[in-house]
């Protein structure tokens, strides 16, 4: 389910999901079509698409899978692979006319993968940009602080828009790099939210979009309910309650989840705000207190 103003990128065509992996391993094009259609019907505006390692070894299956999915839905695809050759093959198989003329999306470009920008020689595109990686003195490094993430986004945006390719800031989506709350002792979740706020208020980044993989936040947490709502979903909704007003407007997720903004007095929302304000083991203890109290 969608939050008004937030665009959903369906994440299910990915072998990381056991059921999808079985579809890929058995060449079940009909099942892939059904999965694509279910995501579109649930409100997805884009479909993330990856078949994993098989993309490198079986280009015929890769092409046929893209074609099958596009026969079933009329929304654009988001091709998810770090390799230029795989992305190039996907784009050559992609039919924009079957997606209402909409551009495909690339997941994702970073300062360590600038070669992906040349995919624009094939066709117009949208790019997801990684805020969590930078190149310093020729070496790829991980960003953890808000200034590093924001500076990386500003550099990448400036370089892409000055590249000479036909691309606008509306074609750029920042991945704000949501971490795993269950192991976050460094305030990374707080930093992601502060990055959203900073990007959302930066005049030179006006018009840029922000996204993230929502399930990253709740990985490793127990499957349980608090106040009759799934704990994992409630924590994702708590993040969104803070992020959406600050400009977070896209998310990679399973589109039939019940996403909504939480009320101020929601118990999980209150606990989430306390958790992200803490560092080290204190943050983990407060999180544990939330789900151990049930």
| Discrete helix count | 11
Helix content estimate = 40-55%
Chain oligomer state: single chain
Order of helices and strands: EHHEHHEHEEEEHEHEHEEHEHH
What fold name stands as the CATH topology? Answer: TIM Barrel
Integer tally of domains: 1
Number of strands: 12
Q: Which second-level CATH architecture applies?
A: Alpha-Beta Barrel
Question: Strands, helices and their partners?
Answer:
Layout (H helix, E strand, L loop, with lengths): L6 E7 L4 H8 L3 H13 L4 E4 L4 H4 L1 H14 L4 E4 L3 H10 L10 E6 L15 E6 L2 E4 L2 E4 L3 H16 L10 E4 L12 H13 L8 E3 L3 H4 L6 E2 L2 E2 H13 L6 E4 L13 H10 L3 H13 L2
Parallel strand pairs: 1-2, 1-12, 2-3, 3-4, 4-5, 5-8, 8-9
Antiparallel strand pairs: 6-7, 10-11
Give a quick summary of the entry.
The protein has 294 residues and is an alpha/beta fold. It has one domain: TIM Barrel. It has eleven helices and twelve strands.
What would you say this structure looks like, in words?
- The model has no long low-confidence stretch (mean pLDDT 97).
- The protein is globular and about 50 Å long.
- The protein has a single domain, classed as TIM Barrel.
- By secondary structure, the chain is α/β, with parallel strands linked by helices.
- The protein contains eleven helices and twelve strands.
- The longest helix has 16 residues, at 146-161.
- The chain has helices at 18-25, 29-41, 54-57, 59-72, 84-93, 146-161, 188-200, 215-218, 231-243, 267-276, 280-292, and strands at residues 7-13, 46-49, 77-80, 104-109, 125-130, 133-136, 139-142, 172-175, 209-211, 225-226, 229-230, 250-253.
